[in-house]
Design brief:
The complex is a heterotrimer of chains A (426), B (316) and C (287). With 316 residues, chain B is mostly helical. Chain B contains 14 helices and 2 strands; from the N terminus they run H-H-E-E-H-H-H-H-H-H-H-H-H-H-H-H. Chain C is mainly alpha-helical and 287 residues long. Classes of the chains: A alpha+beta (426), B mainly alpha (316), C mainly alpha (287). At the B-C interface, helix 2, helix 5, helix 6, helix 8 and helix 11 of B face helix 1, helix 4, helix 5, helix 6 and helix 8 of C.
């Protein structure tokens, strides 16, 4: 009796939910339209605001000249709401033809069949891009995304503060990093921190930890695809962060409130930091004299090897697109020299195409120039479909180590257990 | 039930005795009018909220992969999964603590301010507007100011603590103090709307009650406790339920003050976890299961609240 | 007499101090909106701008098509407020004043509708909007087209009625004395007449409250309008403000300038609505 009832409820629930969703999802199988014509829809988390929109519209004007029969409808959003837009549009069976998304999105979307394979091969792409840049767009040896812009994290330092203390060069290993950090830390009479020797809190914590881990010779995944971010190298990287805060006291937890209290490096409240290439733009706006007088320097975070964190925005085509040919044409156009240069210039980011290293923009933006020169040492996060689930837990784990609640080993071990569960769930 | 049994129990309640038949006809007429007046709202709510709520309950028992577009029965798997997650359990505890401290305090302050702002004094409109301002000021602006006040080195709080020789904490970055700080801001922000509702409710209290009390020589405090508070019962029930629902679903101010769950997840709350599950991890089903848990909490608290305030002033 | 005078002063002092604490962020927002980027990044922060950059406002307005956004937000907020007032007063009255079977169940169901968070309701709501039969190329089963997506319908109708408003009105109708309606009934007035002509004029403070809250919620709504529209000409003011917060950095001065401008209509509305909170308003009708 209970059994029948149970299965009836069960059938009813599935039927009910399925009706609601099926009515919405109906239609839209992959189209067989091979003409480069019709209307295609583009979802973009970059180009928001009038400035961005002007840049994109100008580019799309050129696209229209090249493909007069394709009309592009643009839906502007921001990274903050990208997932909501993707979720509702895909659930509603109305996916965008071309979707711009971040590095971590490619594996889950490709794995679940939401992305169309692009007509590109790794070999071809490595002619135009650095190998490291191509990798995030590839899942299981198929190309799903082409990079438009990169955002990178590396070391930034104040040349003036270094010179004042007689330090000739930025740190070339973790020991030097700690030593210089201690040396350049300033506290007032009452012990209040007035200048952090090294600022590891102004950048997203996960994106600060990961380049340190890579520099220490660690990797996110072992050869068998299992999480490896509790390896001795990874623990060493978190230990370094913990030492900076808890042992050296080169920075206090809570010293900066990203967003509210400004950028310590620009304020002279930090001597060096793990930062974003875009911080240069922020410094230029807040304290332009620092740029003019060449007081900002960059360095690769280095211990066992130099490393740089590389994220980026990639262009993809939906697997459900009715006009895949036109969509792919748009992807090709948005990632080509002209359009991607315009996007990076507007955003202050790093172009992905090798050929743009000589462009006027890159030559004038020292952070972009530095990043492009060091792409060989760039590492990306992601790699597994469960990444979007896993990445959210990094911040709290790192914080629990920095706050002394857990040892770095404990914090990362627990993180790995969670990651394994997320991967197993599929 | 026969009318002989029914009428004696009804008659004492109504002060104007009428022949039973007329009463019944009138009752039917009134009911019909009531159904007509309710119909548009009920249809709208069923369609736009009822169905989504039902879908939420349904999805909680399925594995719905929104990106792949697959759906399958999952039984209680989602519930097992979320309760195995210690961060979710932590967020439940945080939410309870948050609600427990914000709702009563903000309500108490709000009712006092509402009474104070219900007199004929100069600049009344401006005082009222001032107390309502936190409710309409952009959350980012609120966060910006409070972040500066909580700033460890130069923030107002620590400067004051410095004066009395206390070394203040890092507030929003301190796992022990982040939640109290968020609660403080939420009380501050929550006063305006509660005050507004109390202010509106105060207009329904007949003035002659106070005049009579004045003749008896009652003090202001006595009038407040003997007349104002009892007559504000329906409003208090409303404010209590709505504030609790809001507190249980708090998201914005917690998120901007202490992003991504706060220092070592010390301020993560249920709605943030739901948001993260649904749109950070694309696990709509698990998010629905979490919502069902949130729903269950609120339902139980509402029933308790109804009992406490004596059937919400159903006396009418 | 002297004692009373002193009490007034104490009251003003208390309220003044309290009020000041409440408006600090708003004042700070205005000051920040007039600062240069260097001022905003300064540590420690300066209270007043070193130079008053009034051009931030023009720059902020140029940052997005705020004219269109403003118009859209205004239309939606007015639509929401009007519909909510009309439907919720009726529903609240029926729940409060007319005894019928299942009244408690309906009431509790309406309360229950407030208990599921937006983030889980929003995907089904999107699907319902997309599946609206006969609209946007849909057939009678809601298949084939895009339903209400990208239309004024979807911006105005789904959010137009709130359980909050029904609940509030119910509580206010509950607290009205029974003598009034009985007197009207003896005069031969029908139920609807009693609702519209006798009882509703007595809950004007509640109407002002719901109008204010509905308008404000609608004005601040961000996620729903963003999700259900893809065209810029249907977007709202909060979407415009969100554009100041890029992934890499926030344009604080523009954000604060835009937010200040966006707050002004609500302050005006409040100052207008609060006039209905005058003692003796409801009681006037009883005597």
């Amino acid at each position: 009796m209970t059994r029948t009832r149970g299965s009836r409820t069960r059938a009813l629930t599935v039927a009910l939910v399925a009706t609601l969703f099926a009515t919405a999802c109906g239609g839209s199988a992959p189209g067989n339209d091979d003409e480069t014509s019709g209307t295609i829809r583009l979802l973009t988390p970059i180009f928001e605001g009038t400035d961005g929109k002007t840049v994109l519209e100008k580019q799309l004007g050129d696209f229209k000249e090249k493909y007069p029969d394709i009309t592009v409808e643009v839906d502007y959003t921001s990274y903050g709401k990208l997932n909501e837009k993707l979720t509702t549009s895909i659930a509603g069976g109305r996916p965008y033809d071309v979707m711009l998304m971040g590095v971590g999105w490619i594996p889950p979307f490709a794995e679940k069949g939401a992305l169309a394979e692009l007509d590109e091969s790794r070999q071809e792409l490595t002619q135009r891009y650095n190998e490291r840049v191509v990798e995030p767009g590839i899942y299981q040896d198929k190309v799903y995304g082409l990079p438009i812009m990169l955002d990178t994290r590396f070391g930034l330092y104040r040349k003036d503060i270094f010179a004042e203390a007689g330090i000739a060069a930025p740190p070339s290993n973790f020991a030097e990093l700690r030593e210089i950090g201690r040396k350049l830390t300033v506290r007032d009479g009452s012990g209040k921190l007035t200048r952090a020797g090294v600022d590891i809190l102004s950048n997203d914590l996960r994106q600060t930890f990961l380049p340190l881990m890579w520099a220490n010779g660690g990797d996110l995944w072992a050869a068998d695809g299992q999480p490896a971010f509790n390896s001795p190298e990874a623990v060493g990287a978190l230990q370094l962060m913990t030492d900076i805060i808890r042992t050296d006291k080169s920075e206090d937890f809570g010293f900066t409130q990203p967003g509210a209290t400004g950028l310590p490096l620009a304020q002279g409240r930090a001597a060096m930091m793990v930062g974003h290439n875009n911080h240069l733009l922020a410094i230029e706006e807040q304290a332009p004299e620092l740029i003019k007088e060449d007081k900002i320097g960059f360095f690769m975070i280095t211990n066992e090897r130099p490393a740089m964190f590389q994220g980026g925005t990639l262009a993809t085509v939906s697997a459900k697109s009715q006009r895949p040919t036109a969509a792919k044409a748009l992807v090709g156009f948005l990632t080509d020299e002209q359009a991607s240069l315009a996007a990076n210039e507007q955003r202050g980011n790093v172009p992905a195409l090798n050929s743009l290293a000589d462009s006027e923009y890159v030559q004038s933006n020292k952070a972009a120039q530095f990043a492009m020169a060091n792409l060989d040492a760039a590492y990306s996060e992601g790699g597994v479909p469960a990444w979007l689930e896993i990445r959210g837990d990094f911040k709290a784990a790192i914080e629990s180590a920095l706050l002394g609640q857990k040892t770095p080993q404990q914090a990362l071990d627990e993180l790995v257990v969670k990651a394994q569960a997320a991967i197993a769930k599929g | 039930m026969t009318s002989t049994l029914e009428s004696p129990s009804v008659a004492p309640a109504s002060r104007a005795p009428r022949p039973p038949r007329r009463r019944r006809r009138l009752g039917a007429e009134r009911r019909r009018a009531a159904y007509l007046m309710l119909a548009p709202s009920v249809i709208h709510l069923i369609w736009w909220i009822g169905l989504p709520v039902v879908a939420t309950f349904g999805l909680a028992f399925t594995n719905y992969d929104v990106i792949a577009g697959t759906i399958e029965w999952a039984g209680l798997d989602n519930f097992r999964e979320i309760f195995a997650d210690d961060i979710w359990n932590l967020s439940i505890w945080h939410t309870v603590v948050f609600t427990f401290f914000t709702v009563p305090v903000a309500m108490a302050i709000a009712v006092v301010i509402a009474v104070l702002l219900n007199q004929r004094i100069k600049a009344l409109a401006w005082y009222r507007a001032a107390f309502f301002m936190p409710h309409i000021t952009a959350t980012v602006a609120i966060a910006l100011v409070w972040m500066w006040m909580f700033e460890p080195n130069l923030g107002l709080f620590n400067l004051l603590l410095d004066r009395v020789g206390v070394n203040g904490p890092a507030w929003l970055s301190d796992p022990d103090w982040a939640m109290p700080a968020v609660i403080l801001v939420s009380i501050w922000k929550g006063i305006g709307l509660k005050m507004l509702i109390y202010l509106a409710a105060l207009q329904n209290i007949p003035h002659d009650l106070y005049e009579a009390a004045d003749i008896d020589g009652a003090s202001s405090a006595r009038k407040f406790f003997a007349i104002t508070l009892p007559l504000l019962k329906p409003a208090t029930f409303f404010v209590f339920i709505v504030s609790m629902i809001d507190a249980f679903q708090v998201f914005d101010q917690v998120y901007v003050l202490t992003p991504d769950g706060g220092p070592a997840n010390s301020t993560t709350v249920m709605t943030y976890e739901i948001y993260r599950t649904a749109f950070g991890e694309f696990d709509i089903s698990a998010a629905c299961a979490q919502s069902v848990v949130l729903f269950a909490f609120l339902l139980v608290l509402t029933v308790i609240g109804r009992r406490l305030t004596g059937k919400d002033g159903d006396e009418a | 007499m002297k004692r009373k005078f002193d009490a007034r002063w104490v009251l003003h002092l208390l309220l003044g101090l309290g009020g000041l604490i409440m408006i600090v962020p708003f004042v700070w927002m205005i000051l920040t909106s007039l600062k240069s980027r260097a001022d905003i990044a300064a540590y420690p922060p300066q209270l007043l701008p070193t130079e008053w950059v009034w051009s931030n406002y023009q720059a902020a307005l140029d940052y997005a098509p705020f004219g269109t956004y403003f118009r859209n937000s205004l239309l939606i907020a007015i639509g929401h407020t009007a519909i909510n007032l009309m439907l919720a007063t009726m529903a609240g009255y029926a729940l409060a004043r007319v005894p019928f079977r299942g009244r408690t169940v309906v009431f509790m169901a309406i309360l229950a509708m407030m208990m599921i968070p937006t983030y889980t309701k929003i995907v089904p709501q999107y699907l319902i909007a997309k599946g609206m039969p006969f609209f946007g190329g849909n057939d009678y089963l809601g298949r084939g087209g895009y339903g209400w997506l990208d239309s004024w319908w979807v911006l105005i109708i789904p959010g137009a009625l709130t359980p909050f408003a029904i609940f509030l009105f119910r509580q206010f109708y509950l607290s009205l004395p029974r003598e009034l309606e009985e007197a009207a009934r003896i005069d031969g007035m029908g139920e609807f007449g009693i609702f519209a002509r006798v009882m509703t004029p007595l809950v004007k403070p509640a109407i002002a409250t719901v109008a204010l809250v509905t308008f404000e919620n609608s004005w601040n709504n961000f996620l729903w309008p963003l999700l259900v529209t893809t065209r810029d000409d249907l977007r709202v003011i909060q979407v415009g403000l969100a554009a100041f917060q890029l992934a890499e950095r926030t344009e604080w001065s523009y954000l604060m300038a835009g937010s200040t401008l966006a707050t002004v209509p609500m302050i005006v509305l409040f100052l207008f609505a609060q006039r209905y909170f005058v003692q003796g308003f409801a009681t006037a009708g009883i005597k």
